[in-house]
Every structure is written in C-alpha cells, then in structure tokens.
Amino acid sequence: MTVNRIILMFIAFISFIGCERGEQVAQRAQEASIDSLLNSLSLEQKVGQMTQMNVEVFIQRKGGNLPYPLRLDTAKLIEAIQKRGIGSIMNTAGHALDPEDWHYITQTIRFFSQPENGGTIPIIYALDAVHGANYVANSTLFPHQLGMAATWNDSLVNAMGEATAFESRSAGIPWIFSPILDVARQPLWVQFFESFGEDPYLTQRLGSTLVQAYQESEWPVAACAKHFVGYGFPFSGKDRTPVHIGERALREVHLPPFDEAVKSGLRSIMVGSNELDGIPMLANRYWIEEVLRKEIGFDGVILSDWADVAHLADWHRVAKDTTEAALLAVRAGLDMAMVPDDYSFYYDVIRLVNEGKISEERIDASVRRILKMKLDMDLFAEMEAPTVDESTLKAHSAAAYELAVEGITLLKNEDGVLPLRASEPVFLAGPTAHSLVHLNGSWSRTWQGMDTLITHETHPTVYEAMRVFVHELTYKEGSAIDRVGELQDAVNGALESSVIVLCLGEAPATEKPGDRRDLTLSRAQLELANAMLETGRPVVLVLLQDRPQIIAEIADKCAAVIMAYRPGNEGGRALADLLFGHRNFSGHLPFTYPSAVNDLVTYDHKFAETIGPDWGPSGFRPQWEFGHGLSYSSFEYSALSLDQKTYAKNDTIRVSVEVGNSSEIKGKEVVQVYISDEIASVTPPVKRLRDFAKISLKPGEKNLVDFEIPVASLAFVAEDHKRIVEPGRFTLRVGGLEQSFEVK
Ligand code: BGC
Would you name the residues annotated as active-site residues? Predict the structure, then answer.
C-alpha cells in the first residue's frame, strides 16, 4: 500500500467521524498529502498536470478514420501520461460510446497513470454532459437547460443532476463540463438553449441546485461551470465574438450565478472564449485573479475552453505566438489548458519557467488545486462505477419525462382548442413532428446532434406518441426546416381534419456552426404555417427550438402556441400527454419572447426602455413576457400581505399570498415574486425576480404560500461596483397583486 493510499484512508476515516475537529484534521492531512505529491513531481510533470488533451489524439486510426470499437494507442498514452505526466484527458471520440467502451478507455488510461505501472498521478477524465450523460450511449437525455429552467422546479433539476452524475460515473467519468451559468440575454446566441435563460436569479438558483446535485450525490462528479464570464451575451449574437458589458452590469447580471455556485462548493470553472471590452477573458487578470479568486474566493480549478490559449494568438491577436499566449493565460490565473491536440502549452510553459518569466511557485499553486480536485474526487483510491440497470434507467427516464412535462410551456390557448379530443380527426404536420433529432438538439450522442445515431433509439417522436391517443391521425411533413415540401399534400390532409397540430422549429446546432443572422422562423416553415392557417382549421403550433424564433406573422392567427424547447428523448411522450390533457401544463418562460427581430428587450429592462413612440409607456411589446405560461387550470391570487410596512437593512421580508385553483382540473402554478426599487442612484430595472415557488393545487383548493426575502437581496451594484441596499420605497408584486414597503 502506498503512503498516499494510507493518508487517503486516514482522510476517509476522519471525514466519516464528521465532527468539526475531524474536518480540520482531515484538511490538514489532505494538505500534507498534496505537499508530498507536489514535492515528488519534476517541473515537467507539474506542467503536465496543467495540460488537458483530447482523447482522439490517443485513438488508433485507420486511414484517418476512427474505427469502432476504438483502440487506444498505448505508445502515445505512455508518452503523454508517463513521460510528460499530463493531468487530464477529455472528450469523446466521434460520438457517444457504450459504457463498456468507456470502461476500456478510462481503465486503460487509469492503468498507465498508476504508480505501480510507471505513472505518478491519476489522470482526471472530463466529458461534456450538457443534458444528461449525452456521450454515454443509451443514457437518459433530459431537456436542455432552457427547458429545465422553464419548469421552475428545483427538485426536478436536482433529480436530473443526480441521474447525470450516476450515469457519468457508470462510464468511469468523474468530471463533467456542466452547468452553463451564462445568463442568456441575446437570443441570437447559439448556446441560448444550453442556458437557464435571461434571468440572473433563476440561473443562480437552478445553477447551484445542479452543482450540488452533481457534486453531492451518492455517485458524485466534479462540476465545471462555464463560461466565465459574459460569454452568453455577445453583442453580435455570434459565438466567440466580442462582449461589450460594463463592469457594473457584468457584476449585476452575469457574475451572481458563478458567485452562488462557488458558495455551493463548485470544483471547477471554464473560462469563456470571449473578449470583454478588448481583453480576452483568458488573458483577463482582473476578472480571473482579482474578482474570481480574491473577491469571490474561488479556490477550485480554472480551465480554459477548447484551444483558447492558442486562440489568444491566432484569433484574438494579443500574443505573437503560443508561448506569449501561454504567458498571458498563466499570468491571468489559468490552472489547466484544454490544449487539446498537441503539447504546445506543455513546452511553452516549461520554457517560460526556465526563462524566469513564470515562477515555479505560480505553477505549484495551480498544481495544488488540480491535485486537490483529484484527491477530493477520490481518484487515488479504486474508483468504483455503478451499473446502470433497467430499473435505474427507468427511474431516470421518469425524471426526464417529468422535466419535459413541467417545462413545456403553453403560451396561448384560444377557445379551448386544447386539450385535443381523441374522437376528433387530427392532422399533424411540420419538420419537427417525427424526429428525435429535433426533440434532443445538439450534444445528443454527437456534438451537433445532427446525425442518424440518435434516430436508432427507441423513444417515441411526437407523431408516434400522439398515435396512441387519437383514432384518426394523419401526418405529412409539409416542409423541411429550410425547404418547402409537398404543400398541397399537407393542405389536403388538413382539410380532412378538424384540428391541425403543426410542429415547427429549427435545426439543432451549437457553437460556431450554429451562428445565425436572423431570428425569424424560416421562410419555408412560415409558408407551411400560412397554408395550414388558410384551411380555416384551428392550428396548434408546437415549437421545438433552441430559442425564441420570431413568429409574429403567424402567432395571432394560431389557436394555440406551445414552446417545447429541446425536451429530450421523453419529449414526444410529454407533448402528446399534454396535448390530450392527460397531463397539465405548468411550464413558464425563462426568457422574454420577442415579437420583432430587432426588439430584444429583457423583462428586467430599464424604465426608459418602456417609452414608446407616443412618449407613453408602450415601448415594451414582447410576444410573451418572461414568466408567462398557461395551464388547463385557472389560478386566483388574493390576500397578499407583508409582515411590516418598513424594514431595516438586516431584516427579512415575510410575504404571504393566497393562491387558489378555481378550476375543475388539478394543476401546478409557479408563484413568482418580483420587487421594484422605485428610485435608486443607479437606474433601477422595472422589476426583478426575487423568489418563486412551484405549488400543486387540487380543484377548488386554496393555499397560503409564504416567502422569506432578505432585505439584503434588494441590493444592486452601485456606481463604485459594490453591492448596496439603498433606503427608499419598493413595490412587491405577485400574480397581479402588489404591496409597497419602505427600507430605512
Ligand atoms: C465549448 C465548451 C465545451 C468544450 C469541450 C468548447 O468548444 O465552448 O462549452 O465544454 O468545447 O467540448
């Protein structure tokens, strides 16, 4: 048994005792362990620890292709792990792999990194897990984050996190690149669907729930929150293009989700590929070192995004070559570079230390953090992997189904067109109606998700799921996403029916390949929609899309509109159950649905943005507001009360409101609490979400819902960039009711 092993067993024993003193002793023992590991490493091995490489580098190829089942090139592995001591390997090779293939890969890598086989420090394997363990074949594919945010349900998000951790660990993966904590306020941004939407509070709350679920579940994985910071709000909307956000706004909107996740014990952060006001984030010492490390107190691992050290030279042009780029990144605070395909970073950093441009103490600080994460994740011990059996998969799919049901959002339902009746002939059309690709979006078995692999899975599409309920269902595609199809066929089919369900959307895409120049729903789909509307049959529009696409031309004419996001493999079943009323809608928009391409205003806009051309407050005209979502039930709010009229800065505001279900149908309601600061030294937003609760009500049931809101949460980032609560008048609004109060 090695010395490290004994120290680790000691740590485990002490942690088990669980007392505070025990924790301090365990911490000291871990620090001693880190010291001894660090002292055993050469400079080269330390820099190796800071290097993360793509698994594809180590896969044997045949004529340039990846032959499956994959075989690792052991000579290359030995060079990387034993000669250079690299710290981490990441990514999948081509597409999702079976758990057995993952075991072969992770176990082989582990074998070569074990001291008894010539290695030194265990490799930490990292993988993208964007909506479930998406690169593990047959794993549960949940709705993407945007659809999860629409549930406004912390416990469902927690269930997703635990299931994802379990299924990642089942493949031997201890570190995942998730969650996305970018606050998405620009719907053109291609990764909009990967975010929790436009609101900092919703993102912060669900983000830290997810971090805790990943890291504290029975089979924990280390989370990597991304992309620090502001990456989700590029001015042009295009991926990896400049972000122009002032420091105050960045601190107000984009920083809080990271801050909260750090408080929840987050182990790692990925730096965004964006520049901020001319300085690439990866070279941004102020935001990484001063704000993230010192102010927020983050002591976990800071990772670059894909090839971003090199991009400081070739894309951002702030360095003349990769060596200068490495110097900038390490000086700014980088711990580990996702290089990922060569040894440039490794050689560059060794040279920089040898030339005295980077001190060895600086290297040690990063390696300490990497070693700590490896110790925390128990990588030095035998890493056990749970087995995903049928009953586990069933439970995880049930959670995915609930998330889809509770996220899918009913935006409009006129004249009770929904729920559909099984006895009526239904016509189904549109390019997303019979496709698992469109239910799942990107990061589904492959990076872009646009392949046939997913179509072999046995989950029902919307069409297949609807067929179970309706006696007469005819389906014609009518149009592809970007190409008009057999319109006349679709019109004939529609005329035979009494209601049309029209499934439209967009093709899955993420990162650069998904850059868009226009937010409008494609012309081909608008033509199909108009042809369907002209039949005079009521149209139920279902949108399977990554963001709000502009549908103003047809929205008013459709009888019902449903935003389905990317609801995952259970999305077809969830949609069918909702359409036929076997389940009730309870999703609410986590973003403002705009009505025009150039009118992208978030719900927490400034008062000046509400001024319309008539100089009156008619300037904010979204298609649907943030937080909007209908149900088959109707809810009534009454008796809103606050425990006081005046509060001091350290007080807690105790709010209660009665919510009743005045319908015959059981339903869930999201009770949303907004607070407006009436006058402040920095222009206040018209309102901000400060709390919410999702409650369930039987027909006729009425319940009192309580909230405790610390006055401290009314703070805003003042002119000097510090958070303050200013005395004055505030208005609190819940479900159409309002109450004013003072802060002294
Ligand atoms: C993306 C990250 C992702 C990483 C690893 C990058 O291109 O921006 O979000 O985690 O690749 O696949």
Answer: 305
